[in-house]
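Morning!

This is the sequence you dropped in the shared folder:
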Amino acid sequence: MNDTLAGFEELSHTADLEIKVWGDDMASLFLAAADGLFHLSGIEDYEEGFSAVKETISLDAMDYEGLLILFLEELLYRLTEDYMLFSIEKLSISTNFSLKAKLRGTQIKSYQRDIKAVTYHRLNIRETDHGYEVNIVFDI
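The structure's back. Tokens below.
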């Protein structure tokens, strides 16, 4: 694991894309995973003169892994269908597997990689001495 409090690194995968993500708490883990998703998609250009869109999302799941999948799938949908890149202005995750996030979206022109889905393959959030970590595989 890296010494920073939160982040991600791309791992070698035979057919899909995979990242290792870490964070000192659950919220920073989810934020780093979102950064990893947007990095892997290879966003190329922002739309000039487009005003930002602000939205709030609420998600519920049966566990943290399911919540992470729902969160990343929501961001992926907005990226591929609406061509929107979202920064997360505020994120809270409760112990009953609920997430609330305030998003600020910016229109993009294009992205390089077409990510089809976030998978459950090898998805297991692990507690470490430094916080949490997880490997996430994306279907391309």
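Headline: DSSP finds two helices and nine strands in the chain.

More detail when I'm at my desk.
O.
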